[in-house]
Write a structure and sequence with these properties.
Helix content: under 10%
Distance between the termini: 39 Å
Strand content: over 45%
Number of helices: 0
Structural class: mainly beta
Radius of gyration: 13 Å
Shape: globular
Length: about 120
């Protein structure tokens, strides 16, 4: 299991932008596929975006064009830039390390960050 520490999050107004980050304590981070999920109370954790070891990205349709996932291998960091935030984006956001994206689906591992609350409200 990979230890992941997340940062960022907070209280935002609709239309604003926010970037959240996670740092993964993995020696082989360069070879890890990484992903972001979010979860609201009472619902399943929802896949948002993934970035492969080679930098290829894939997004859930609901956030495509608004969210951007990126990575900095030197810092073992993955970022999620969220633009044009909407009230519906309110959730706890989670970073996952070391999964795999196959046939249009990301399969997560048990390596999750602690979660970051993002609240969007006017």
């Amino acid at each position: 299991q990979v230890h992941i520490v997340q940062s960022g999050g907070g209280f935002m107004q609709p239309g604003e932008s926010l970037t959240i980050s996670c740092v993964a304590a993995a020696e082989n981070f360069n070879f890890y596929d990484m992903a972001w999920y979010r979860q609201v109370p009472g619902e399943q954790r929802e896949f948002l975006a993934t970035i492969s070891a080679t930098g290829a990205t894939n997004y859930e349709d609901s956030v495509k064009g608004r969210f951007t996932i990126s990575r900095d291998n030197g810092k073992r960091t993955v970022n999620l830039q969220m633009n044009s935030l909407q009230v519906e984006d309110t959730a706890v956001y989670y970073c996952n390390a070391g999964g795999s994206y196959t046939r249009g689906r990301y399969y997560p591992t048990d390596s999750w960050g602690q979660g970051t609350q993002v609240t969007v409200s006017s």
